[in-house]
Design brief:
Helix content: 25-40%
Strand content: 5-15%
Largest sheet: 7 strands, mixed
Shape: globular
Distance between the termini: 38 Å
Number of helices: 15
Order of helices and strands: HEHHEHEHEHEHEHEEHHHHEEHEEHEH
Structural class: alpha/beta
Number of strands: 13
Length: about 400
């Protein structure tokens, strides 16, 4: 089944916004447009529910119910229990809290495996555990392809390893890592698994329950929602880790690792992401299925659309001698996040693209370790990053290719 692009774009007010007409958005990996359902919920909360939730009066009860709705519906899409999903201020902040918890639980001499493929948010906080005597082992990418080899992970695993951290896909390499396979390897060695899904979730919410990791993190502002970090922590691990929240909330799994608490309005608005999934499903299908199955169906619709749009772009840039495509050239195995190492600094090229109505970025994108490992001068040159999602149109892809022909000639 083909994704109805016109219907998709009708769900996003940005595409009807006069000030954005003629501008093609290709920095979605930094944050997506927000769907109308989220905006409507956020507006309603701020105008009708902006009181302390869960008190015994109508506005408060309604506000609390909307917050609960967001957790219940999003956890169902993700294939986990409602209390296994927490909302925090950002994925980076959530990871720091988790690292603090692991640091309290682990003993000196035990080990954590991180990668140099990650955005700094899923590697920096864990590396700081070295200050507590925790051994940090680095799972290194192939310097040519940027990919992680599971066989290299096997050589790092032993009975000292307590946690393996890696991205579902890198925000510059784009290659989709085999989460199920990697998780199975880590679990077989007795280690827990933390997956950074920030760069993957915008391309279809994953069935975390089926994938199997103990922790799965992503950011709602990159998945058509408000600025929150969503964090799945499976019960077996969540009950084991030391509580990081208020002592009187220690018996509530979804509060154990959010010491700052959630943003009430933004959490409530996250139910709009579930509204969007439901709208796409109902427009394209008729069968009555579970929320998790709806999520899988919509995930596959999004991915199929993105693969179709992505391959011509990969072919076009791979044919240029002056451009190094970071990551695989096969659209079926990567997210539509395309990083290009150029002969010159990337930011001025992004500025030139802006004169053609292309909104893109240049820099290191907090992936300094990955770029440096692949021989890219992250500090002085960086990469040009072109990222899109299922809502990108054929016309916008044509606009991008035409602009690239001009600025890269």
């Amino acid at each position: 089944m083909m994704l109805d692009s016109a219907f998709v774009r009708s769900q996003f007010p940005a595409f009807q916004e006069p000030s954005l007409q003629g501008q093609a958005f290709f920095e979605n990996a930094g944050g997506s447009y927000t769907c109308g359902a989220v905006i409507d919920r956020l507006t309603r909360f701020y105008t009708q529910r902006k009181v302390q939730p869960y008190a015994p009066y109508d506005a408060s009860l309604l506000g609390g119910a909307e917050m609960d709705e967001a957790r219940t519906r999003m956890s169902a899409i993700l294939g986990v229990d409602a209390d296994e999903l927490s909302f925090g201020p950002s994925t980076t902040q959530n990871t720091y809290v988790l690292a603090q918890a692991f640091g309290q639980m682990m003993q000196a001499g035990e080990a954590v495996i991180v990668t140099n493929q990650d955005h700094e948010a899923n590697t920096g906080p864990w590396r700081r555990l070295a200050d507590r005597g925790i051994e940090i082992r680095e799972w290194k990418i192939d310097p040519e392809t940027g990919e992680l080899n599971p066989e290299d992970l096997e050589n790092l695993l032993d009975d000292k390893v307590r946690l393996v951290c890696f991205p579902h896909c890198s925000n510059v390499v784009g290659h989709i890592n085999p989460v199920v396979e990697i998780t199975a390897l880590a679990h077989a060695a007795g280690a827990f698994v933390c997956v950074d899904g920030v760069s993957y979730a915008p391309h279809g919410f994953p069935d975390v329950g089926n994938l199997g990791p103990d922790i799965y993190l992503f950011s709602s502002y990159k998945t058509y929602g408000p600025h929150q970090g969503l964090m799945v922590i499976r019960r077996a691990l969540g009950d084991l880790l030391p509580n990081q929240g208020h002592f009187f909330n220690a018996d509530k799994l979804y509060k154990r690792f959010t010491p700052a608490g959630e943003d009430h309005a933004q959490q409530a608005a996250c139910a709009g992401m579930a509204d969007y999934v439901d709208a796409l499903y109902d427009h394209h299908a008729e069968d009555a299925v579970s929320p998790t199955q709806r999520g899988r169906f919509v995930h596959d619709l999004m991915r199929a659309r993105e693969v179709t749009l992505l391959q011509p772009l990969l072919d076009a840039v791979a044919a240029r001698n002056s451009v190094r495509l970071i990551g695989p050239s096969d659209a079926s195995v990567r997210a539509p996040t395309v990083a290009l190492a150029l002969e010159d600094a990337a930011e001025p090229v992004a500025a030139k693209l802006a004169t053609h109505g292309i909104m893109a970025g240049g820099g290191d994108f907090y992936a300094v370790r990955a770029l440096s490992a692949m021989g890219v001068d992250a500090e002085n040159k960086g990469v040009l990053r072109l990222s899109f999602t299922h809502y990108t149109s054929d016309a916008e892809m044509d606009q991008l290719l035409t602009a690239l022909d001009d600025v890269l000639s």
